[in-house]
Write a sequence for this structure.
């Protein structure tokens, strides 16, 4: 079964958001542990977590789309 063009684009963005968001989250946590960089860590971690969450929600949205 092959995905149509809009579905393939959506799937690409899903994985970019999930993996990119998790990477930013981990880097934010690691940065925030350094002395004096707590604000920078939060500024990296929060958008990363939001991006990963959006990717997970898009998985649900993709599951509800018709294959027509």
């Amino acid at each position: 079964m092959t995905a149509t063009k809009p579905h393939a684009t959506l799937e690409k963005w899903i994985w970019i958001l999930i993996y990119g968001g998790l990477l930013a989250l981990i880097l934010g946590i690691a940065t925030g542990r350094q002395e004096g960089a707590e604000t920078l860590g939060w500024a990296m971690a929060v958008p990363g977590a939001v991006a990963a969450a959006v990717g997970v929600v898009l998985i649900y949205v993709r599951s509800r789309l018709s294959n027509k």
About this structure: Helices lie at 5-32, 38-64. Residues 5-64 form one domain. The chain has two helices and no strands.
